[in-house]
Design a protein that fits this description.
There is one protein chain. The chain is α/β, with parallel strands linked by helices. It is about 50% helix and about 10% strand. The strands form 4 sheets. A 7-stranded mixed sheet has the order 2-3-4-5-1-6-7, sandwiched between helices. A 6-stranded parallel sheet has the order 10-9-11-12-8-13, sandwiched between helices. Helix 31 links the parallel strand 14 and strand 15. Helix 8 crosses helix 42 (about 1010-1030) and helix 41 packs antiparallel against helix 42. The longest helix is centred in the N-terminal third of the chain and has 80 residues, at about 130-205.
């Protein structure tokens, strides 16, 4: 107990608790505790006295010395339990307090006996300095502690992150090592592929940076051949000289005047509105009499499609300028800048300044009191366009003859008794000028975005264009059947599209060139499609829902050539009936007729074919005794198709019709994707009833517009009459009107038409049911009769084609074209008649057409042309009608000069030459005999060679590789006849690509790395060249062909870095 009491008292005294008041009498018991208390009390007083140094203001050094000596410690407490910090704070000793806290690490939060901190004591003592210092110190301490804590946390996070990064790096290194070890061969191969790709395809991917604006031959045509995009006049000098000699005199007259200056409109407005009396005609007479209409005011005017296209596609500001000038002309204003006659023109052509900056001119004429605006062009193109307008207006009056000879020539049958129709022809071809009517009261509508001009139609054109229901237009070659389609397309677009937002149009033809012509004539529209028949079938097949039960692989298709070679010639049926007759019967009647479609198996029953009354004697002209024989051959043919897993066009179309029928019933929405509001079909005579039914399915019973010429039904296997269309229309419930006809020929002159008409007379006389007889064609132009050259040798022909008739087109039987091309020193412009169908040429030579006819038809043909055919001629020799159609088609390909050339004597040839050159009492001869040495030169101009070259190259884009090769050979040859070597280079690159693609076609031997590397290198070089030449469409073709020989890496990289850009460029160009 004594020890505990002593320890307790000692702790109490040390803690600063006052023990002085404790007296000995309060200590119970007699012990040494009292003595201890006295000692502790004394010691406490001594300890308290040591604090006096602080209380009495001792210096900091003295205080430090006392603590150093141990008289005072950090734990020492003064009376009341005050520590040195409390005491320093109470006596406002900042220096002592700072030293104690900073150096001695004393705690400012320590409590005295009254549970007060140093700050509490300082505040109670009103010691301002120490109070301030304590507050600031604590603030610094708190801030420092916070910063240190966050710093340490941040350092900890950083170290943790570094550890994670280090661990990840270590793991990646380990994984990379493991991956390299596992996939070392793959990685090395990919690295090699990357390096190989860079070396082979690097220049190819970079070549897109220098690509031209064109992507195909149609674009090249627009860029190089079309005046609308600014063709330099120098390229057309050859044609210019032939168009107008008078231009040279005009240039000499103007040599001292310089070019017209473009002056501000403000100056124009100040000009005196009087005619220019100093303008002199070519004959030296003043043209003042031409201005007697200077005050004429017009209520309306007409503009060509070229002007409409300029206003719709050009800068919108030009519309306002155009409206302003037209209003000035309409009001009767006249000045040099409003009505300036062009010098050097054969006819009176005016130019009007459009505005002051661009230098555009409005070219117009007056035609029987109406103002016709032909073109809007830049000033540098005016002279060229002036000559084209001159030529257009003079074509209808070509080879005018004196009035004194008119009656005599009409009596001889050389001139029509009817008054020739006046038609304005387009400046770029022998087609009517497409014009629009504009009323001056509504001329402000031109400035609006929604402006749609009103198409001008003659009474005859309006009768065709506005006809209701399904319409069939019939006309001979060159009579403008396609023009009526373009007019109907535009008329329907204007009259129906605004009322029906869902209105859609589809134009179909077999020729790519024809599709592009119609699209260019009508103009692009997102609701209209212009596709070939082959493309149409593919599009429908891919659009209709569900998978087809049969795969129509192109390699398994049977056409006439394959039918004749692989089946007919190897069968026992080829002795009695020719392959062409069998093929025609199969396609037209046994599988392609509407009766065959109605049968369950899609085949015309034997009885329906054999019995004459079932099909009708006029519809099927096959002799009765041959029908069973032909039907037996057909059954063997069907078995052959089944055994060899082959198909023909009738199989494909019937299968497609059944799919469309099912889709219409089961999935109307899907069927609606292929259906169109209106369908327009050109050359309808080339289609069977089954194919015409497809068009009805697409358009409905009253949405079809057809145009064709039964006399040109020369496609193998097609026997067309108007009744064929009517039969299909009856099947679908369509009310067919009487066919519309067009008779004015815009292509050929009267000399050629008279000869072609003689061929038609033979056909209609002896084959009355083979084609519908129309009114005789009326030509707009007069021209010389065809020439007949008998006994011309191959050497003489080669000389003629190299000089006087350079560029003339040779037409032969299709199967002989390759043979004649070789004999004529690889002359490129040799066509088969069927191949040339739909085309037109300046000079045509029909070569050995009669000598190369089948021997079985030589005598029948002689009897026909010499007028000795019997009444049963049609029944006995039905194939003769096909050759008459071929002859007619070949003759009507010609525009200016036609020759019939026979190299050797033959029964049919000798008789035909007599018939052609014989003059009857009621007509002149159809042709004249010529000496080959006296043939007048008819070489094509440079422009015509360029045009023909581009025509062939453009056609090659849509043909198979074999035909494309032949067309490009022609194209290269045409370009080589001119000075435009750039076009020849493009065609050679395209030709090289075609040859390369043929080489890549299967079958191939087993592919090896060396072969693939060679093909890849050659493909890269060709693609680079094609890209630089702007033939991007062929780039896509060659990439598709070369794909099997490329590595997966090369294919992926090319598609990503090159092909996508090419496809985008092609798409942009098409838009």
């Amino acid at each position: 107990v004594n020890e505990s009491s002593t320890s307790f008292l000692s702790k109490v005294a040390t803690a600063g608790i006052d023990i002085q008041q404790i007296t000995k009498d309060k200590i119970y018991g007699k012990s040494s505790l009292g003595e201890l208390l006295s000692n502790l009390q004394q010691k406490q007083l001594d300890d308290w006295s040591r604090f006096d140094i602080v209380k009495k203001g001792g210096s900091l050094a003295e205080i430090q010395q006392v603590m150093k000596d141990g008289d005072l410690t950090a734990d020492s407490r003064d009376r009341g339990g005050l520590l040195l910090t409390h005491l320093s704070a109470a006596y406002d000793r900042v220096d002592v307090l700072e030293w104690l806290v900073v150096s001695k690490r004393m705690d400012l939060n320590a409590l005295d006996a009254q549970h007060r901190t140093a700050l509490d004591v300082a505040k109670a003592s009103k010691a301002s300095l120490t109070t301030k210092w304590i507050v600031e110190w604590k603030a610094k301490t708190i801030i420092g502690s916070f910063l240190r804590r966050n710093y340490y946390h941040a350092m900890h996070r950083r170290k943790l992150q570094q550890s994670i990064v280090a661990a990840t790096l270590i793991q990646s290194v380990i994984r990379a090592y493991a991956t390299r070890k596992i996939f070392a061969n793959v990685l090395v191969r990919r690295l090699e592929e990357s390096q190989h790709f860079a070396s082979v395809w690097g220049r190819v991917t970079a070549s897109l940076n220098n690509v031209s604006t064109s992507t195909c031959w149609s674009g090249i045509r627009e860029d190089l051949m079309d005046i609308k995009v600014g063709l330099d006049d120098e390229m057309l000098d050859d044609t210019d000289q032939r168009l107008s000699i008078a231009m040279e005199d005009a240039v000499q007259e103007d040599s001292g005047e310089g070019h017209d200056e473009i002056v501000p409109d403000e100056i124009f407005d100040l000009e005196e509105l009087v005619p220019d009396d100093n303008i002199v005609a070519e004959d030296g007479v003043f043209k003042s009499e031409m201005y007697n209409h200077s005050s004429t005011q017009w209520l309306s005017f007409q503009m060509s499609s070229h002007v409409v296209k300029f206003l719709q596609q050009g800068d919108k500001k030009y519309r306002s300028f155009f409206v302003r000038r037209m209003r000035q002309l309409a009001s009767g204003e006249r000045s040099r800048i409003l009505q300036k006659p062009l010098k050097g023109s054969k006819t009176l052509i005016y130019e009007t300044y459009l505005e002051q900056k661009s230098g555009h001119r409005i070219l117009w004429t007056e035609e029987r009191g109406r103002l016709v605006i032909w073109y809007i062009a830049k000033h540098k193109q005016v002279s060229r366009l002036m000559q084209l307008i001159d030529d257009s207006k003079s074509r209808s009056a070509r080879q005018q003859i004196p009035d004194s000879l008119v009656n005599e020539l009409q009596n001889e049958g050389l001139l029509s008794q009817n008054k020739p129709k006046e038609v304005l022809l387009d400046i770029f071809g022998n087609v009517p000028l497409k014009i629009y009517d504009v009323n001056f009261n509504t001329i402000s509508e031109i400035t609006k975005e929604s402006w749609t001009p009103q198409l001008h139609l003659t009474d005859e054109e309006r009768d065709i264009v506005e006809a209701e229901g399904t319409v069939l237009v019939l006309g001979r070659s060159g009579t403008g059947k396609t023009v009526t389609i373009t007019q109907r397309l535009e008329f329907d677009r204007q009259s129906r599209a605004a009322q029906d937002p869902s209105f859609t149009q589809l134009f179909v033809a077999r020729s790519v060139r024809l599709c592009r012509y119609v699209e260019g004539a009508v103009g692009e529209d997102n609701r209209a499609s212009f596709v070939t028949y082959a493309r149409l079938l593919s599009d429908i097949e891919s659009t209709l829902p569900g998978k087809t039960a049969r795969n129509f692989n192109p390699s398994q298709r049977i056409d006439f050539g394959r039918f004749k070679r692989d089946f007919h010639n190897n069968s026992s049926f080829d002795e009695r009936v020719s392959a062409l007759i069998s093929w025609t019967v199969i396609r037209t009647f046994l599988k392609g007729s509407i009766e065959a479609f109605q049968s369950p198996d899609g085949i015309l029953p034997r009885d329906a074919f054999v019995k004459v009354e079932r099909l009708g004697k006029n519809r099927c002209r096959i002799p009765v005794e041959l029908r069973d024989h032909i039907y037996d051959e057909f059954l063997h043919y069907q078995k052959y198709l089944e055994d060899q897993q082959l198909w023909d066009d009738c199989d494909r179309v019937r299968h497609l019709l059944l799919r469309m029928k099912n889709a219409k019933e089961d999935d109307p929405d899907a069927f609606g994707q292929v259906q169109r509001s209106k369908v327009y079909v050109d050359e309808v005579q080339d289609y069977t009833q089954l194919e015409i039914l497809l068009f009805f399915y697409l358009s409905g019973p009253s949405g079809l517009f057809l145009a064709g010429d039964p006399a040109q039904s020369v496609v193998e296997g097609t026997e067309f009459r108007f009744e064929e269309v009517r039969g299909v229309g009856h099947f679908v419930g369509s009310v067919m009107q009487k066919p519309k006809t067009v008779n004015v020929n815009f292509r050929s002159h009267s000399g050629i038409l008279n000869c072609a008409g003689g061929v038609l007379d033979l056909m209609f006389t002896h084959f009355p049911s083979s084609a519908k007889q129309l009114k005789k064609d009326e030509g707009l132009f007069q021209g010389s009769r065809p020439g007949v050259l008998m006994g011309a040798s191959v050497d003489q022909l080669n000389i003629l084609l190299g000089d006087k008739l350079k560029g003339a087109v040779i037409l032969t039987h299709d199967e002989s074209a390759r043979h004649w091309r070789r004999l004529l020193n690889d002359y490129k412009l040799v066509y088969g008649v069927r191949e040339a169908k739909g085309l037109e040429f300046k000079t045509v030579i029909i070569l050995d057409f009669f000598r190369e006819m089948p021997s079985s038809l030589q005598k029948p043909w002689r009897e026909l042309v010499l007028g000795r055919a019997t009444e049963d001629f049609e029944r006995s020799y039905p194939l003769v009608a096909t050759f008459l159609k071929l002859l007619y088609t070949g003759a009507t390909r010609c525009i200016e000069k036609l020759f019939f050339v026979e190299t050797k004597s033959s029964t049919a040839g000798d008789a035909t030459m007599r018939w052609l050159t014989k003059k009857d009492s009621d007509r002149a001869s159809y042709a004249t005999r010529n000496n080959i040495n006296d043939v007048e030169g008819m070489s094509m101009t440079s422009d015509e060679f360029i045009s023909e070259g581009i025509n062939n190259a453009e056609l090659a884009q849509a043909m198979d590789l074999g035909q494309a090769q032949l067309l490009l050979e022609r194209s290269i040859w045409c370009f080589e006849q001119t000075d435009v070597i750039e076009l020849a280079a493009k065609a050679r690159i395209h030709y090289s690509s075609i040859l390369f693609r043929q080489e890549l076609e299967p079958p191939h031997d087993e592919k090896n790395a060396k072969e693939s590397a060679v093909y890849e290198m050659r493909g890269a070089q060709l693609i680079e060249s094609l890209t630089k030449e702007g033939l991007l469409f062929e780039v896509l073709n060659i990439f598709s062909s070369a794909t099997p020989f490329l590595s997966e890496y090369a294919k992926e990289e090319l598609e990503k870095r090159f092909i996508r850009k090419v496809m985008l460029a092609v798409a942009v160009r098409e838009d």
